[in-house]
Design goal:
With 295 residues, this protein is α/β, with parallel strands linked by helices. The protein has one domain: Alpha-Beta Barrel (TIM Barrel). 47% of the residues lie in helices and 15% in strands. The protein is built from eleven helices and eight strands. It has helices spanning 3-8, 24-39, 56-67, 85-97, 126-136, 156-169, 181-193, 210-220, 226-234, 239-260, 273-283; strands at residues 13-18, 45-47, 74-79, 102-106, 140-145, 172-177, 200-205, 264-268. An eight-stranded parallel barrel has the order 1-2-3-4-5-6-7-8, surrounded by five helices. Helix 5 (126-136) runs parallel beside helix 6 and helix 9 (226-234) packs antiparallel against helix 10. It starts with a helix and ends in a 12-residue tail after the last helix. It binds flavin-adenine dinucleotide. The site of flavin-adenine dinucleotide has 23 residues, from strand 3, strand 4, helix 5, helix 6 and strand 6. Flavin-adenine dinucleotide (FAD) is lined by residues 48-49, 51, 77, 79, 104, 106-109, 125-127, 144, 150, 152-153, 159, 162, 166, 174, 176, 203.
């Protein structure tokens, strides 16, 4: 089965996002965790890219390493902000040479810690990157969806129009994280009314701290329900309790989504293997566990 066969299968898939580790210690921890991740039988594992190229080599190395790991199919994130077309072509050609043909095509955001906007690249929008990737080779391409609207968009119908245009050219989409099942289903209704029927995987996150959640939500536009804020604040003196609250919220949301029918669940793992494994345990009965790997 190809990754698209799996995403189009009626049985829901399970996939996750990783960051390229920043330190040798984090890298060693991730290497140790990879066999555990493979046991979860993810449909794919996507690897983030620091817009502007800050993680260019680290993303490439991790993606190529994972491509050689049995049971793991990596998707390399690639963003067009602050890059020339020649740089993007070079990155794509290195992936092709390494037999990596799965890309998440993005515009890119500045890092969480930065208050400065990213300089424009030669391509302004992710849909233009999708065109470039198609021109470079036989890639499977995912794009980002923003169920609550892109935070910089002033007009929700224009935002929806641009998203549909982008997904029409790509193979599937992964949503920004959100905290209410209705947010996803309302968005899907609008996209389906535009006759775009490609898979849109809901992205879910297990918040690990109220401060990082607030910062991420500010950037992504995700509304945080008051009850989740209260639960995280109530647990905030103890990191273990915060993690537990976050994992429980993620499992509850994923189960609601799976009960109502979604193509799969994509977990923003933030490289927390313990949380990812717990979320998987909490939903494994509702996800496919016997897909054959596309490698
Ligand atoms: P676009 O699709 O280009 O949209 C950006 C804005 O431009 C929207 O407001 C849209 O309405 C508007 N727009 C689009 N096309 C047009 C047009 N033709 N004319 C006028 N306006 C237009 N960021 C990173 O830096 N690295 C990552 O690894 C990363 N991974 C992500 C993974 C997922 C699944 C998601 C959901 C987000 C990820 N992001 C990442 C964040 C992403 O880069 C930001 O959300 C960014 O602000 C928008 O990216 P996009 O690809 O959706 O952009």
């Amino acid at each position: 089965m190809t990754v698209m066969d799996q995403l189009n299968d009626p049985r829901p898939s399970f996939s996750l996002e990783l960051w390229p580790p920043r330190t040798p210690q984090a890298s060693a921890r991730l290497s140790e965790a990879i066999p555990q991740l493979a046991e979860l039988k993810p449909t794919f594992v996507s690897i983030t890219y620091g817009a502007g190229g800050s993680t260019r080599e680290r993303t490439h190395e991790l993606v190529v390493d994972l491509a050689m790991t049995p049971g793991i199919l990596p998707f390399a994130h690639l963003s067009c902000a602050a890059h020339s077309v020649a740089e993007l072509r070079d990155i794509l050609s290195r992936y092709l040479n390494a037999k990596v043909t799965n890309i998440v095509a993005l515009r890119g955001d500045p890092p969480l810690a930065s208050d400065l906007p990213l300089p424009d690249g030669e391509l302004l929008f992710a849909s233009q990157l999708v065109d470039l990737i198609r021109d470079c080779g036989p890639f499977t391409i995912a794009v980002a969806a923003h169920p609550e609207g892109h935070p910089q968009s002033k007009d929700s119908s224009e935002d929806l129009y641009h998203f549909c245009e982008k997904l029409d050219k790509a193979d599937f989409a992964i949503t920004q994280f959100f905290f209410r099942a209705d947010t996803y289903f309302d968005f899907i209704d609008k996209v389906r009314k535009e006759r775009i029927n490609k898979p849109i995987l809901p992205g879910i996150i297990a918040p690990t701290s109220i401060s990082s959640l607030l910062k991420m939500s500010e950037l992504s536009g995700a509304e945080i329900p008051q009850e989740l804020r209260d639960a995280l604040l109530g647990a905030s003196s103890d990191p273990t309790s915060v993690r537990k609250v976050g994992v429980e919220a993620a499992i509850n949301l994923a189960r609601q989504l799976l009960d109502e029918g979604v193509p799969g669940i994509h977990v923003y793992s933030m490289n927390s293997m313990a949380s990812t494994i717990e979320i998987h345990e909490g939903i494994a009965d509702l996800c496919a566990s016997d897909f054959e790997y596309p490698q």
